């Protein structure tokens, strides 16, 4: 069985690749920078250097594939339009699926893709869903919740005692460990008993408000952290200060459409969508050591 995994240095792709190896499969890993791969992983896989924005390279690398995990990386150019970028990569995936007659494709999408437009960067994932659906091939769209790992980008703010986001502090939404997503993806890639077009949400173990997230972080890490809602304009300013271009700023800010009270997700929580890793467990292993790697700026909780 030839199973191709894209973005194998990412949280989802790397976990899926590891599970496939543990299941006895030697996956083919498409990497833009093969040198960044975990050596233990690359020794048990066939590594192909490929840029997913190069359609011909994608088609060549997926030739004879039985299954494909398509995870689109962010554009390296900070001025790139993320919606157009994702749509372009989605077209490359659809071409590879069609020309190589790939039996099963699992695509990493997002909650909010069902809106089809008006959700910022997620609109590009929605376009990829449409392009893959149009192939008529067997495909599964994993519509995922908010990644725990996004908190690693808020370390400086949390060291100062505040977790900021452009959403109401009492808005509850699914939060999920990307490793759990990788495990679901690997399981579906290994199974040959499904066919047609499917959507499966990945919701994590429970819906969490920003206030509850701050409480869990405080309990687990020893930092007193409070939740704070910031305006979308303030959020845009923070993104620009991080060096992002206007289109990327708008793409990320636009995703806040799925954190408003008037948004209702199409995919309901069920046994299929609920994954086991809690935020507390993840934070203890990953967030706590990252926060304490520098001297604390606020008193312990």
Helix and strand topology:
Layout: E1 3-6, H1 11-22, E2 28-31, H2 39-42, E3 46-49, H3 55-61, E4 67-70, H4 82-99, E5 104-110, H5 122-134, E6 138-144, E7 146-147, H6 155-159, E8 162-165, E9 173-176, H7 178-190, E10 197-202, E11 207-208, H8 210-221, E12 226-229, H9 232-241, H10 246-254, H11 279-291
Parallel strand pairs: 1-2, 1-4, 2-3, 4-5, 5-6, 6-10, 7-9, 8-12
Antiparallel strand pairs: 9-11
Helix pairs in contact: 1-7, 3-4, 4-5, 8-11, 9-10
Q: Summary?
A:
The protein is of the alpha/beta class. Helix content is 39%, strand content 17%.
Structure overview:
The protein has a domain at 3-147 and 176-202: 3-Layer(aba) Sandwich (Rossmann fold). The protein is built from 11 helices and 12 strands. The protein has helices at residues 11-22, 39-42, 55-61, 82-99, 122-134, 155-159, 178-190, 210-221, 232-241, 246-254, 279-291, and strands at residues 3-6, 28-31, 46-49, 67-70, 104-110, 138-144, 146-147, 162-165, 173-176, 197-202, 207-208, 226-229. A 7-stranded parallel sheet has the order 3-2-1-4-5-6-10, sandwiched between helices. It has a 3-stranded mixed sheet with strand order 7-9-11. Helix 2 links the parallel strand 2 (28-31) and strand 3. The longest helix has 18 residues, at 82-99. The N and C termini lie far apart (51 Å).
């Amino acid at each position: 069985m030839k199973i191709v995994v894209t973005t194998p240095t990412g949280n989802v792709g790397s976990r899926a690749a590891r599970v496939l190896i543990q299941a006895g499969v030697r996956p083919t890993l498409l990497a833009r920078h093969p040198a960044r791969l975990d050596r233990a992983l690359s020794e048990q896989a066939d590594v192909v250097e490929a840029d997913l924005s190069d359609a011909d390279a994608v088609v060549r690398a997926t030739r004879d594939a039985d299954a494909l995990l398509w995870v689109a990386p962010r554009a390296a150019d900070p001025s790139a339009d993320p919606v157009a970028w994702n749509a372009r990569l989605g077209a490359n995936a659809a071409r590879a699926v069609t020309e190589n007659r790939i039996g099963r494709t699992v695509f990493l999408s997002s909650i909010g893709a069902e809106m089809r437009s008006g959700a910022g960067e997620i609109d590009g994932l929605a376009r990829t869903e449409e392009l893959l659906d149009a192939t008529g091939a067997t495909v599964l769209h994993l519509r995922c919740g908010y990644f725990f790992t996004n908190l690693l980008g808020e370390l400086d703010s949390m060291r100062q005692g505040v977790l900021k986001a452009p959403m109401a502090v009492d808005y509850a939404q699914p939060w999920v460990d990307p490793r759990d997503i990788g495990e679901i993806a690997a399981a579906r890639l290994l199974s040959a008993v499904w066919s047609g077009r499917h959507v499966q949400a990945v919701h994590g173990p429970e819906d969490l408000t920003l206030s509850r997230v701050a409480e869990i972080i405080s309990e687990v890490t020893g930092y007193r952290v409070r939740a704070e809602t910031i305006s979308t304009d303030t959020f845009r300013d923070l993104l620009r200060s991080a060096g992002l271009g206007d289109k990327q700023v708008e793409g990320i800010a636009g995703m806040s459409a799925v954190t408003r009270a008037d948004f209702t997700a199409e995919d309901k929580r069920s046994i299929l969508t609920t994954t086991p890793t809690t935020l507390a467990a993840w934070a203890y292993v990953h967030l706590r050591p990252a926060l304490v790697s520098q001297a604390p700026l606020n008193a312990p909780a």
